[in-house]
Amino acid sequence: MLLPSTLLALVFALLPCPRASAADHNVHTSSDSLLWGPYRPNVYLGLRPRVPKSVLAGLMWGKLEDVEKTLRHNVNQSEGMARYGWTAYDTREGGRQIIEDVGNKINLTTEFVKYSEGQSAGNWGLRIRGIPRSGAGPDQKTTVVFYVDIELAHPVLGSAGIHIGVPLNNEGAPEAAFIKTLNVTEDRLWQAKCGYVQEATFLAALKDQTEQRTQSGPTDLVLNTFPGTGNIQLVQFVCHGGFEFDILYSSGTATRAMTSASLTTDLESTISSFQKSFVSIFKPKAPFITDRHLAFAENVFSDLLGGLGYFSGTTKVDTAKKAIYAETTGNFWLKTEDAKKHTTPETKGPYELLTHTPSRSMFPRGFLWDEGFHLLPIIEWDADLALEVIRDWLLLMDNDGWIAREQILGAEAERATPGPSVTQFPHIANPPTMFLVISKFIDMLRGTTKYYGRESVYLSQSETGKVFVAKLYPLLKRHYEWFRKSQSGDVEAHSIPTANLNEGYRCPLTSPSCI
């Protein structure tokens, strides 16, 4: 059955507002605009709010005739993409992403904008555009699936609607559209062996339909339309050639509706604002001021911001610490590696973390020392965002001062992580690069370093900034003392002429030659 309307609508209960952490009570920040975002960097386009156990949304696509082998969803370097990434993106406003899918002979542009009106309010919009690549057939058919997962049976606090415009074909008629609602239990929802749940659910639905048919034939290519109540909504389009459609999210408490017209206007202003802000904040100098240089720099920085993810869930830690060997033990590093294979990790948490990721395809999770380097340019762009991320990281610290070097929180993050890397070991550290960012913020607070970025609550109200640093200081001190104690190295045995003979550090992750 085809849906007769050119507009689909999903209405569901929304979610609780983000938690207030111990470090920021009584301090108002601009975190409201960080509620929603493409915070699932492990997939090409995945939206969610900064709320655990709530709502996930995302996009999948592939060739209609061979969808099982060509379906795109999670970022995968083996799929032969010519390009994917954000070309202009601001965390608080949105931006544009380009995906050049050589295998499926389609180029996608995904554009996202949002605006907030306080916690749990505000709207966002997505525009999805597909253009056939050179060499595509005259009647190329692309299946496009937008999904919404509700992780809890009854999310609370408010309601919202998602309106999805059905693409039009070259004659201006609506393309084929199908919607299916499924109920999937939580244990099946996150079975590690079935791949990404959204892919598995969509492909399984097609397979189930085929098996239930009374007539034999090839596997079904489209969903049987069956809307209803469930925790997974799948909306499938069959598009001929090029296509474009909008997905409009409106909170029930928002005073301004998101429409296609406002989406167009907001997209134009968001891209223009990003480009102007980039030049005014970073002030590129000759010879790096050509259009090509600026486009390259904007793309790189946008990809950094677009790699921001929100993660929640439990983590696995080797609390028994059996993998720690004294350096006086012969071949201790080999014994450590062997002990890691026989650990029985303890589940800790749940925790929450907002963090940028080193690689959407290879490392779509938080890395402690990488994040310090990530935040050095980001704090110049948006100081409050950088501080929000730092606070999240420091709140993961244990009583000794240890912070796990990799943060693998929740089933989706664990599925994207190689098995040996999942368990974290309390004797392994990363260089404390967050101190570089805190030091830079203090210089901004003092006025010794100029700040040209987005308006900052912590810098415009200096007392608020000082209170923030004062609240973080005990955590910073604990982490610093733990690092000095746990990572100290044998300086005399491994010193080089220019080394500081008073103090040195060694990384227990590798061999004793690592100083």
TrEMBL record:
Q: Where in the cell is it found?
A: Endoplasmic reticulum membrane
User: What pathway does the annotation place this protein in?
Assistant: Glycan metabolism; N-glycan degradation
Query: According to the UniProt record, what class of enzyme is this?
Result: hydrolase
Membrane topology designation: Single-pass type II membrane protein
Output the GO biological process annotations, alphabetical, semicolon-separated.
oligosaccharide metabolic process; protein N-linked glycosylation
Residue ranges of every copy of the Glycosyl hydrolase family 63 C-terminal domain listed in the record: 259-493
Q: Where is the Glycosyl hydrolase family 63 N-terminal domain?
A: 33-151
**Record field: transmembrane:** none
Its biological purpose: Cleaves the distal alpha 1,2-linked glucose residue from the Glc(3)Man(9)GlcNAc(2) oligosaccharide precursor.
Tell me its EC number(s), please.
3.2.1.106
Cited Gene3D superfamilies: 1.50.10.10, Glycosyl hydrolase family 63, N-terminal domain
Which keywords describe this protein according to UniProt?
Endoplasmic reticulum, Glycoprotein, Glycosidase, Hydrolase, Membrane, Signal, Signal-anchor, Transmembrane, Transmembrane helix
Q: In the record, what terms sit under GO molecular function?
A: Glc3Man9GlcNAc2 oligosaccharide glucosidase activity
- Main localisation: endoplasmic reticulum
One GO location term (cellular component): endoplasmic reticulum membrane
Q: What family is it from?
A: Belongs to the glycosyl hydrolase 63 family.
Record the organism: Pyrenophora tritici-repentis
Which reaction equations make up its catalytic activity? N(4)-(alpha-D-Glc-(1->2)-alpha-D-Glc-(1->3)-alpha-D-Glc-(1->3)-alpha-D-Man-(1->2)-alpha-D-Man-(1->2)-alpha-D-Man-(1->3)-[alpha-D-Man-(1->2)-alpha-D-Man-(1->3)-[alpha-D-Man-(1->2)-alpha-D-Man-(1->6)]-alpha-D-Man-(1->6)]-beta-D-Man-(1->4)-beta-D-GlcNAc-(1->4)-beta-D-GlcNAc)-L-asparaginyl-[protein] + H2O = N(4)-(alpha-D-Glc-(1->3)-alpha-D-Glc-(1->3)-alpha-D-Man-(1->2)-alpha-D-Man-(1->2)-alpha-D-Man-(1->3)-[alpha-D-Man-(1->2)-alpha-D-Man-(1->3)-[alpha-D-Man-(1->2)-alpha-D-Man-(1->6)]-alpha-D-Man-(1->6)]-beta-D-Man-(1->4)-beta-D-GlcNAc-(1->4)-beta-D-GlcNAc)-L-asparaginyl-[protein] + beta-D-glucose
Task: Give the matching InterPro entries.
Answer: 6-hairpin_glycosidase_sf, 6hp_glycosidase-like_sf, Glyco_hydro_63_C, Glyco_hydro_63N, Glyco_hydro_63N_sf, Glycoside_hydrolase_63
Signal peptide range in chain numbering = 1-22
Protein name, per record? Mannosyl-oligosaccharide glucosidase
